[in-house]
Specification:
The two termini are 15 Å apart. It contains 9 helices and 10 strands. Strand 8 and strand 9 form a beta hairpin. The protein is 35% helix and 15% strand. It has 270 residues and is α/β, with parallel strands linked by helices. The longest helix has 17 residues. It is globular, with a radius of gyration of 19 Å. The protein has 2 domains: 64 residues, no CATH class; 189 residues, 3-Layer(aba) Sandwich (Aspartate Aminotransferase, domain 2).
Amino acid sequence: MFSKKDLSKTLYPINDQLMATLKNNWFEKAQKNISHNDFVDKAEEWFKSTKLNQLEGWNAFPCVDIIMGCTHYIESFCSKNKWNVQVIPKDYAYYSVMGKRSTEIGQLKPGIPLIISLPNWYYGGIHPEWSTILKECEQKEIDIHVDCAWITVAKDFNFNFDHPNIKSFAMSMSKYNMTWNRIGLRWSRQRTMDSCTLISTQRKYNEATTSCGAYIMDNMERDYGWNTYGEYHNQICKELDLLSTNSIYIVKDKKTKEPYSIGPMLGKLN
């Protein structure tokens, strides 16, 4: 039923009939605005409603801002720190595209903030050296900022954000086929003044983005990917002799550990 020629080295998301219908309905039908506070409440409830991941420590981050996807979070963080930030190998390619070289684990520079993707796209879940990274950050007084862009398509990601070195984290909806409407939230321990703060508190975002985000949340369950395609994911891995990951549309070659997308394959099944 499945063929390796359909695997993609580009990590395409799932683009199925539900995604197409949501997009078409959004543009073709009348939509309602949503207030700032109502969107924050709705989005927090939606992100927290996962049954496939155990996420703790939310209450330690009382400052919540609306963001235009996790790229907004990344750019705001890097800009505020004048790009004097650190990233580790095999992390989100966007960091390198923006010209930032990675620093090897064990060689992180003291006092320079670290931004890290968790779940990690390459490993399909928690970074295998997370405990080592966390210990190094403790010893070197390195603040950690967590990019959780992949969390909406993940399962078995069990994580407690409430560690003193973690200062903020962010989530968005775009890892489904929602890149046409980037929207999400950032949680921070303390209020800081940056692009995310200004755009959110001064309501300078386009209200169509929050209205659309609310519409999608009302019509797509939080764990949609795994609940809909989990059995297909496992079947593809079995038939093609691939390694499963905890990200619904990412699998890996057993020998090379090279990641591939099965998003286009999954999108044709439903």
